[in-house]
Amino acid sequence: MQIDIITCLPKLLESPFSDSILKRAQNKGLVKVNIHDLRDYSTNKQKSIDDYAFGGGAGMVMMIEPIDRCITFLKSKTEYDEVIYMSPDGELMGQSLANQLSLKKKLIILCGHYKGVDERVRQHLITKEISIGDYVLSGGELAAAVVADSIIRLLPGVLSDETSALSDSFQDGLIAPPVYSRPAEYKGWKVPDVLLSGHELKIMEWRTEKSLERTKERRPELLKNNC
């Protein structure tokens, strides 16, 4: 997979992709993440990528020309499955969408800033808009990293145990069950006996029961959505 991220603050994206699972995925050649500085595509001496909004009002707007130049350049090199814009009013990111995007080969992710991008970018250059929640961030970089992480960890070979992703929360529409590790007893706090029994069927039944209980308690709307 190849993910190209367009940003006016590339340094914000250095850390998320330079450690842990995302770094290992790149080292294995399972994904290639390219960070593109939008200012490199500005045509003025100041390398500015924003301007005042027509009609007035507070805040600056990301101009269409640098964005168009960057996306056009990237598309001249290869074909992309999606051109994604990180936006507070986009489709809410969820596990189902992560699963869908993990099947794609090449993605562009555009990070917004200021009051957002010129609307013509959204009308003519973007194929999908994604939000990671009903709140506003200072920019789209952290959101882009979140989306990329949720996608990359699903790629075959990224996780040492590929079945791990299948038992994550939301993968089956439920919250994951409680998990425990050694020691079996600590300060009098004990691990449930069933998990120490070695009986796979009983353990599976216990985990399913606890997933349902936890989902009903914490995220009951998920059960309604699965009905």
Explain how this protein is built.
The structure is a single chain. The chain is α/β, with parallel strands linked by helices and 227 residues long. The protein folds into two domains: 2-152, Alpha/beta knot; 169-225, tRNA(m1g37)methyltransferase, domain 2 (Trp Operon Repressor, Chain A), CATH 1.10.1270.20. 33% of the residues lie in helices and 19% in strands. It has helices at 20-27, 64-77, 95-101, 119-124, 141-152, 193-196, 200-218, 220-225; strands at residues 2-7, 32-37, 50-52, 60-62, 82-92, 106-111, 128-131, 185-186, 189-190. The longest helix has 19 residues, at 200-218. It is elongated.
Distance between the termini: 34 Å
Within CATH, the superfamily of the largest domain carries the name: SPOUT methyltransferase, trefoil knot domain
Could you tell me the number of beta strands? 9
Overall radius of gyration: 22 Å
- Compute the number of structural domains: 2
Q: Looking across the biggest beta sheet, what order are the strands in?
A: 2-1-6-5-7
Class of the largest domain, according to the CATH hierarchy? Alpha Beta
* Biggest sheet character: 5 strands, parallel
Write down the secondary-structure element order: EHEEEHEHEHEHEEHHH
Any idea what the CATH architecture of the largest domain is?
Answer: 3-Layer(aba) Sandwich
Low-confidence stretches: none
List the helices and strands and how they pair.
Layout: E1 2-7, H1 20-27, E2 32-37, E3 50-52, E4 60-62, H2 64-77, E5 82-92, H3 95-101, E6 106-111, H4 119-124, E7 128-131, H5 141-152, E8 185-186, E9 189-190, H6 193-196, H7 200-218, H8 220-225
Parallel strand pairs: 1-2, 1-6, 5-6, 5-7
Antiparallel strand pairs: 3-4, 8-9
